Amino acid sequence: MRLTQTFRKFVPRQFVEHFAKHGTNTLELGHADEDEVAILFCDIRGFTGLSELMKPQELMNFLNSYFLRMNDPIHQNNGFIDKFIGDAIMALFDHPGGTHKNKAQDAISAAIDLRKALSIYNEHRRNSGYTAINIGIGVHFGPVIIGTVGSDDRMDTTVLGDSVNIAYRLESLAPKYNADIVVSAQLLKTVGADYPLKTRLLDWVRVKGRRAPIEVYEVLSHLPLQEQQKRYAINSHIVEGLACRIRQDWDGALNHFHRALQINPEDILPQHHIDVCQQYRHAALESNWDGALTIQ
């Protein structure tokens, strides 16, 4: 029984339940199922620099303390951790017996709760004389392949697909836009307009490993109300400016982005778009250019 309980810590129970749902009662090498789930990536900003200041045991103690705090918001919202990748967490949301909408809403709720858990954790760190840390979160919804890979003597569960890559790339965009939580338009569409969520449009981008561009948004709901209002106040100018950029109406785009900068000079988003427009305005663009910013 102890051995079984130990193995459950390496192979999430939800993986086994997922396979059972598709009629499989054993975990065999090479088994694969296709499903649509919400995928969440979360990692610590500036972790490399932070880790260089710690001794090996201190680093392990820090990571385990951090992961312990991040575990509950995921599990309490019907998700499960698929992998710890260094300081990063990859979590899946496959609401048992639920709809796609349930899965997407679970993932958004978990992302917001992760930010709340981080605030509490940072308070404890400050009380103990440690510096606060920050995290970036990316969330996407889409089809994935869930299965087992490896060899005869070493097997692991895994999740593959374009949707996983998108969620990972969204998380990597968080520091670029000074955003805590970055989500795709597909996730918001799945969540539904009736869900009480405050967001703003960030950009129209093409992420590494994918041809088709995606619309990316920043979640604002976890921020103090005043900060939400400040960030959202420029949203209409960002929307209109991006539409102009896609049409290669550079004067119109720059006009909207400069007006956004006047409204909120502390927000880095307008200046980002001004810089992008100046870059593309003087570049030799292909005839089929779709207005997307290519992110490497």
Automatic annotation (TrEMBL):
GO molecular function per UniProt: adenylate cyclase activity
TPR repeats: 234-267
Domain of life: Bacteria
CDD domains documented for this protein: CHD
Xref: InterPro entries: A/G_cyclase, Adenylyl/Guanylyl_Cyclase_3/4, Nucleotide_cyclase, TPR-like_helical_dom_sf, TPR_rpt
Biological processes per GO annotation: cAMP biosynthetic process; intracellular signal transduction
Keywords, alphabetical: TPR repeat
Domain named Guanylate cyclase: residues: 38-171
Protein name: Adenylate/guanylate cyclase domain-containing protein
